[in-house]
Specification:
Blueprint (H helix, E strand, L loop, with lengths): L1 H24 L3 H16 L4 E6 L4 E8 L7 E2 L2 H8 L6 E2 L10 H8 L2 E9 L2 E9 L9 H52 L4 H16 L1 E9 L5 E8 L8 E2 L3 H9 L3 E3 L6 H6 L4 E8 L2 E13 L2 E3 L3 H38 L5 E5 L5 E4 L1 H7 L11 H4 L4 H13 L3 E9 L4 E12 L5 E10 L6 H5 L5 H8 L8 E14 L2 H6 L3 H21 L3 E6 L2 E6 L8 H25 L7 E16 L4 E6 L1 H12 L5 E4 H7 L5 E3 L14 E4 L1 H5 L1
Parallel strand pairs: 22-24
Antiparallel strand pairs: 1-2, 1-6, 2-3, 4-5, 5-6, 7-8, 7-12, 8-9, 10-11, 11-12, 12-13, 14-15, 14-18, 16-17, 17-18, 19-21, 19-22, 20-21, 22-23, 24-26, 25-26
Length: 675
């Protein structure tokens, strides 16, 4: 007897071990269901069984079954759920004596001679049922059998919940990827059509791209004739037969104009527009600008691998966005001649002015500059026109701040004795920025006026914008350190970069982009100077900071890591405020390397750029690129110099461009960044 009990115990333990293997190896929820049901029936010697799943519609479906023949889906009543909740940590013996409630599911289970039902609850969320019929030999279930069933049910519950979470995550991931793809596509199209100035060419381009994105079999763009309700087909794709004459008086177009939204038509609908065009599956979106509908885009038949399918709400949102871009581009094309005339007139006037004048459009891009402005900037017109002012003056923080202030406050802002970076030397200027208004008083950008006052020495005031006060004082106290030339020295280099800034900025207004960068750089550079770092350069949204050059100090490498850690803490504070403003978070990666570089003043006697060059710089930049959002990645040399002060996680070596061997890397421990 004792020996039989031992054998049974070993059998149960073996079953539980097999259960673990099923949960680990199964790649689909169906595989889990089949494996667990087979194991359950074999372990307790049950004649039949089934695993049922519960969905949000209060329906019961079958995940896996053996011996059960139930009509599915079954409706689970509230009374049945209450009964199951009372047994959510155990089991329920069938049949149920209380017939007071309409127990459809329980009645079907009773008819199928189910003996035990084990509810699958994750906390208070009902996931399903594990049911077994009578044993093969007709004997009763022992307490050990029931305990084993409850253990199996517990593991099954966890598995179902995990698969549920995984499905939700995968669904969200798919949705996000699709949205990102759509946004990228919209951006690409926006860039492509922005330079097209012929309306007919523009319509053909937009239609062709829209057909491709939405997998339509054919399409047409209809524009309203001047002074007439007739809609003329300005562009069509794959429309072999004649396009019927359509009028804006048609009910569908009136509805679209009133509601400011397009519409989707399917085969089940019998609308006049479907009959007129001879197509059933349609999607229509208005081409509107300045609250006025200029025309419509119509696409037919969404082609998929399964065949023709109806368009959906997501398709309509995408087509609407495309039509909005087309409307703006068409409006720009129509106004191009007038703008060109105005621009030529303005340039002729500005050419006679001694003060440098630069005009910006509403996007912050330079659309004109006079000869005096070119002389001050010491460059050619082709190098200026079309560039954004943030790129043009990326090293001129004071001028950037002046432009931003004028844009935000919508008034004139001025500053005297400002240093301006030019090709050959630093130019000291008086600067003024004012709103650029059209005859109706609407803002059309900004006007920048620059007066060259380079005869006044502004060296110290210029230099202190790039390095800390301590460094400025020491350099200006030793003229030899301001001479051209270089030297080899050991330096620690910190790179930081905002992740996904380009994508984020595309969704923001230009003035908000500028404000975001100014807030970010202001805080980051303050931290750099606090730790006696030298700001080498700002490249877009990237910072390059030196420690140990031009002046070496104690614990240069430690201060570099401290700077990166403080930056990440400060970014978390910034993101709290950004969340309150419903703005996307700023995510920054950082890379730090230590090694020998060539440092010094490079250039001419009139224009010097203090910087460092060498392989150490390249590796630091690559580490920054490899670091994820919120991460600080360091080289082995940095780790060796700072491992007593900071906690690190060792990573697998990474491949760095320009190096044959992989580079060992380390990450600042997450706990350090959370503290």
């Amino acid at each position: 007897m004792e020996e039989n009990g031992t054998d049974q115990l070993e059998y149960y333990l073996s079953s539980l071990n097999e259960l673990s293997e099923i949960l680990i190896d199964a790649d689909r929820v169906e595989s889990v269901g089949t494996g667990i049901l087979r194991l359950t029936l074999g372990t307790v010697m049950a004649s039949k069984g089934a695993i049922f799943l519960y969905n949000k519609n209060k329906d019961i479906s079958i995940l896996s079954k053996r011996g059960f023949d139930l009509p599915v889906p079954l409706f689970m009543s509230s009374a049945e759920l209450d009964t199951l909740k009372n047994h959510k940590h155990g089991h329920l013996m069938l049949p149920i004596e209380d017939k007071g409630h309409n127990s459809e599911t329980f009645e079907h289970l009773t008819k199928e001679k189910a003996k035990i039902a084990l509810p699958l609850f994750h906390k208070n969320n009902f996931l399903g049922l594990l049911c077994v019929g009578s044993k093969f030999m007709g004997e009763k279930y022992s307490s050990v059998d029931i305990k084993i069933l409850e253990i199996i049910a517990g593991h099954l519950t966890k598995a179902l919940y995990n698969y549920q979470l995984l499905n939700e995550v995968e669904k969200k991931k798919t949705e996000i990827n699709l949205k990102l793809l759509q946004l990228e596509t919209l951006f690409d199209i926006s860039v492509a059509i922005s330079s097209v100035l012929d309306v007919e060419e523009l319509c053909e381009d937009v239609l062709w791209r829209s057909v491709g994105i939405l997998n339509a079999s054919k399409g047409v763009i209809l524009l309203q004739s001047e002074g007439s309700p007739i809609l003329n087909p300005l562009a069509n794709f794959n429309w072999v037969e004649d396009i019927p004459m359509l009028s804006k008086k048609l009910a569908i177009f009136k509805s679209i104009d009133e509601n400011k939204i397009g519409e989707v038509f399917t085969e089940n609908q019998k609308k006049p527009i479907q009959k007129k065009l001879g197509e059933q599956n349609l999607i229509i979106a208005p081409i509107s600008a300045k609250n006025k509908t200029q025309g419509y885009m119509i696409l037919c038949n969404k082609e998929t691998r399964k065949g023709i399918e109806p368009f959906n709400a997501t398709d309509l949102d995408l087509l609407t966005a495309l039509c909005n871009q087309a409307a703006v581009a068409m409006e720009n094309a129509k106004l191009f001649k007038e703008i060109t005339k105005e621009k030529q007139f303005n340039e002729s006037i500005l050419g006679s002015i001694a003060t440098g004048v630069i005009t910006l459009d509403n996007l912050g891009e330079v659309d004109s500059i006079n000869s005096a402005g070119l002389k001050i900037l010491k460059t050619e017109k082709d190098n200026i026109i079309g560039n954004h002012y943030m790129y043009l003056f990326e090293k001129d923080e004071e001028l950037l701040r002046l432009i931003t202030t004028s844009e935000i406050e919508n008034k004139t802002s001025s500053e005297l004795g400002m240093s301006l970076k030019t090709v050959s030397k630093d130019t000291v200027i008086n600067a003024s920025v004012a709103p650029r208004l059209d005859p109706e008083g609407n803002k059309q950008g900004s006007v920048i006026a620059l007066e060259d006052i380079s005869d006044v020495s502004k060296v110290k005031n210029t230099f202190k914008r790039y390095v800390s006060k301590q460094v400025v004082d020491e350099l200006l106290g030793d003229d030899g350190k301001l001479n051209l030339g270089g030297e080899q020295r050991e330096v620690t280099i910190l790179f930081t970069d905002i992740r996904g800034f380009t994508s984020m900025s595309e969704k923001m207004k230009p003035e908000r982009v500028v404000t975001t960068l100014n807030e970010y750089f202001s805080d980051m550079i303050d931290i750099v100077f606090k730790n006696n770092g030298t700001l080498d350069k700002i490249i877009g949204d990237e910072l390059m900071v030196l420690y140990g050059a031009p002046i070496s100090g104690e614990n240069d490498t430690v201060r570099a890591v401290e700077t990166a850690v403080e930056m990440q803490h400060k970014i978390k504070e910034l993101n709290i405020d950004r969340k309150k403003r419903k703005e996307p978070p700023i995510l920054v990666g950082a890379g730090i390397n230590k090694g020998l570089v060539v440092s010094g003043n490079i250039g001419s006697r009139d224009l010097m750029d203090y910087t460092v060059i060498g392989d150490t710089v390249n590796v630091a930049s690559r580490l920054c690129a490899a670091a994820g959002p919120g991460e600080i990645m360091v080289s082995r040399s940095v780790y060796g110099a700072t491992k007593k002060e900071f906690s690190y996680d060792k990573l697998e070596p990474i491949k760095v461009k320009g190096k044959e061997k992989k580079v060992p890397v380390f990450l600042i421990n997450d706990k350090m960044l959370k503290s």
